[in-house]
Amino acid sequence: MDLHLKESRVTGELVYDGHFLKVQRDTVRLPDGKNTTREYIKHPGAVVILPLFDDGTVLLERQFRYPLDQVFIEFPAGKIDPNEDPLVCAKRELQEETGYSGTDWTFLCTIHNAIAYSNEHLDIYLARGLTAGDSKLDDGEFLETFRASVAEVMTWVREGKITDVKTVIAAFWLEKIVTGQWTP
Amino acid sequence: MDLHLKESRVTGELVYDGHFLKVQRDTVRLPDGKNTTREYIKHPGAVVILPLFDDGTVLLERQFRYPLDQVFIEFPAGKIDPNEDPLVCAKRELQEETGYSGTDWTFLCTIHNAIAYSNEHLDIYLARGLTAGDSKLDDGEFLETFRASVAEVMTWVREGKITDVKTVIAAFWLEKIVTGQWTP
């Protein structure tokens, strides 16, 4: 199925192998039989954690993102290590970035954030039963955490104060869950 | 403000200048005074169009995305040409990809889809007053269009059938608008 849309790999190579980014360039066969070039980032995948406290607030981060030269409000997230289980990664990243550990973890959804030029996917988890502890930020990682209500987060989405896609999507899911419309 | 989070450029260069992807690698000064490397995609920005018919259905596309080797359900979207106004781009992309033109355009929000490694932003527009016409797909572009109700789209988001971030976020906005919760 979908042969009228599908593209097939002919040849390809890793054309940029950087410290963080890896760029693959493939020659592909189009549905009409012609060839073209596709370039994309090879990404290991990532996780996003939605830490929900019993009082209905969530834990967020403020982090400077160099490509856009600004501080973003984000839910905790991180890249999956080689052969790491996504849920193990989510628990690790929450603890490393915020110090919190959770007893109750629920998978919400997978999202794809740059389908034209990256194979990245992000698995979003809801974390409850939270207990504070010590954070262990990576070398060169700087962020601060804060708590906000669901109503505040949704206002910031509507007003454009939250624009990071993983955080926007997690916020909409959060509202669906706390209002009882969606049961994860 | 935010000097305890901010990173500053020291030097940098374009390390990969491909057909589609451009990778910038900068040496940056961290908040603690140390230097590190940041690599990111230089992207011109893009637009997303949410085409809403008077009967409450929306226009969607099915398109094969090579980096993930699968067909995605998406709202129409496209890259902004050099010096192009985003709204002009949105009108152009809707007509090129689907043939439709709209008389009533409303800006909804800007989103950032890969803040760790791309400076891409996407401006999302609601398009109403739609009239069918002829599409003019780019060379090497293959897609099909279909219509669905808001309820169907939201079910596909919840079930994980729609995972493309621009489409997920536009769907949540759509529901907010048609239920009267948010007035754009």
UniProtKB/TrEMBL annotation, chains A, B:
CDD domains: NUDIX_ADPRase_NudF. Pfam families: NUDIX. Keywords: Hydrolase. Its cofactor is Mg(2+). PROSITE patterns: NUDIX, NUDIX_BOX. It catalyses: GDP-alpha-D-mannose + H2O = alpha-D-mannose 1-phosphate + GMP + 2 H(+). Residues 41-170 form the Nudix hydrolase domain. It comes from Undibacterium arcticum. This is GDP-mannose pyrophosphatase. Belongs to the Nudix hydrolase family. NudK subfamily. PANTHER family: NUDIX HYDROLASE DOMAIN-CONTAINING PROTEIN (PTHR11839:SF18), UDP/ADP-SUGAR PYROPHOSPHATASE (PTHR11839).
